[in-house]
Amino acid sequence: MKSGIAKDTCNVVCVNKVVVARVKKALPQGREIGEAADMFSVLGDPTRIKIIFSLSREKELCVCDIATILGLTISAASHQLRKLRDARAVTCRNYGNMVYYSLADKYVEALLCDALRHVLKNGR
Hints:
The protein contains 6 helices and 3 strands. The chain has helices spanning 17-26, 30-43, 46-57, 63-70, 74-86, 106-121; strands at residues 61-62, 90-95, 98-103.
């Protein structure tokens, strides 16, 4: 630190008004930002990440399969799947007495792949 100024802040205030205006205009609105934050919050759980990963390897899996893969009770797996379904990260379909889950869209898988790639690239 030089002259009591932290390394993570500007030493002087100098705002680029053109850039600021352009970014502010493009910034998503509250609802969109809130929903994106909710998605990251839901995906911020190791068990749910494992579920997403598992579903990225198979088109669909039943609750029993997911519970077995992760070493969870069926109730615990169902609880985590419900959170993912509420966030629209996964979808489900009933087939007789079975409930099958799949990823809601390619973007959920892409989020996971990008996060894993980031972690592997940065050696965390």
